Amino acid sequence: MYYIADENRYTEMPYNKCGKWGLKLPAISLGLWHNFGGVDVFENGRAMCRRAFDLGITHFDLANNYGPPPGSAEENFGKIMKLDLAPYRDELVISTKAGYLMWAGPYGEWGSRKYVLSSLDQSLKRMGLDYVDIFYSHRPDPNTPLQETMMALDQAVRQGKALYAGISNYPAPMAAEASKILKQLGTPCLIHQPKYSMFERWVEDGLLDTLEQEGIGCIPFSPLAQGLLTDRYLNGIPEGSRAAKSWGFLKPEMVGPAIEKVKKLNEIAKKRNQTLAQMALVWLLRDPRITSVLIGASSVEQLNNNVAALKNLKFSNDELTKIESILSGEKVEPTKLPANTVSSEPPKSQSRADFISRVVNVVNIENISNNSIDSSESRNDYFKNVAKRFKGMK
Q: Which among 154, 287, 131, 151 is positioned nearest to 219, based on CA atoms?
């Protein structure tokens, strides 16, 4: 059946600017890391992409190695574009990345210009696209000068194969240096994609501050900690879940130690009339430095439930304090974080002229002024070691 997008797709979804730049992303974006590969059911992935667009999700995020097997998620997304989404290409923000192992030999991973640009050409071919909207360096390369990797991103933009450049998994000092290089090249860094959730908060130790200072957007991946921050594992590991799959990143031994925190967080979510997953998503979005959260989904139903999180974006200080106590395992003082974030966008029922007029009045009234990592080394240790090389940079 021929796909026609929902004509009301833009009425409910909020859209946020990437840092200081003009490009806006939906508050929730769809990542194709899992469930869109060659081992998965194509029609299920196709249904999720169509439903996502109908819900106002305009951003679809990929990488060269997404699958499994690597490359198959891009191939499947290319088929979905051809079958359904091609007429809406100018309404979509499609991203891909290069950095992890894709082919044999010395040029098949990391951050050399040869690998990065070759990978982009392959990605465009797999997806049947002339360009991607955002092209990322997927991870820092400790053995390649940062300037070389950033020059490759700049070249991709200048060749018209990408509209914007982004980085992913870069620690704060390295992100600052990458931003500096890209500015000098004339292709500023648009956005950073780090791993960030209630259970993984390394970005709070300087990265978010750096992104704010540089005017760079932030789109966290794994906001639900690979599914741990859902109600799926409250009573064990269900068949078909990520932890039950042999090729997933969430292992059974990772589930047990987190369950007590998950149960306590779930109780707070219930009182908010949300699922745990919904609360975990909007907990990230409470920070105005977060442009969008990148969700994965295994079904249309799950996608619908995640997007429904946007119906309640507000947190009380009491809720935030209780959440922080659970996550830290310690009693904490009432949080100083603002209970709610304030949108910079006009309400749906308000014209832009009215919105600007209202802002001016407020300003007057309140007088406001302006894959090759050593197996003995954990992911966190790896990035800490990379960061040490950039310690002390200005």
A: 287
